[in-house]
Design brief:
By secondary structure, the protein is α+β, with helices and mostly antiparallel strands. The chain has one domain: Nuclear Transport Factor 2, Chain: A (Roll), CATH 3.10.450. 29% of the residues lie in helices and 51% in strands. The protein is built from 3 helices and 6 strands; from the N terminus they run H-H-E-E-H-E-E-E-E. A 6-stranded mixed beta sheet has the order 2-1-6-5-4-3. Helix 1 packs antiparallel against helix 2. The longest helix has 16 residues. It is globular.
């Protein structure tokens, strides 16, 4: 079982790395065989596939995650909040999100992202 503060710190580091487009730091957070699911995209298996998504496929140009809550339990977490930013086509985006994360050996093993449009 991982410490709740450790898990919360990893979640915060994950979203900060994404917002800063710090792909080297982001890659270090995932296990080699991590699985990533995000609404509207295929399943990404393995750190390399996940990083290809972020570096080449993700339709977001820039943005900021605002965390509203993080719930932890043993080796898992759920993070809820808001994301605002720009898509690659210049369109503004404002989404509510929820992330499910599972950890193994101090790394993210599974990540599922759910989102919906904010009002």
């Amino acid at each position: 079982m991982l410490d709740q503060k450790f898990i919360s710190g990893i979640v915060e580091a994950l979203l900060t790395a994404i917002d800063n487009q710090d792909w080297d730091s982001l890659a270090k957070l995932f296990s080699d065989d991590a699985v990533y699911e995000v609404t509207g995209f295929p399943l990404y298996k393995g750190r390399k596939a996940i990083m290809t998504y972020y570096e080449k496929i993700r339709p977001i140009q820039s943005g900021v995650h605002t965390i509203e809550s993080i719930y932890t339990n043993d080796n898992a977490a759920v993070c809820c909040g808001n994301f605002t930013g720009l898509k690659n086509n210049g369109e503004r985006i404002d989404l509510r999100f929820a992330d499910e994360l599972e950890f193994e050996n101090f790394k993210i093993r599974n990540r599922r992202v759910y989102f919906c449009q904010s009002d």
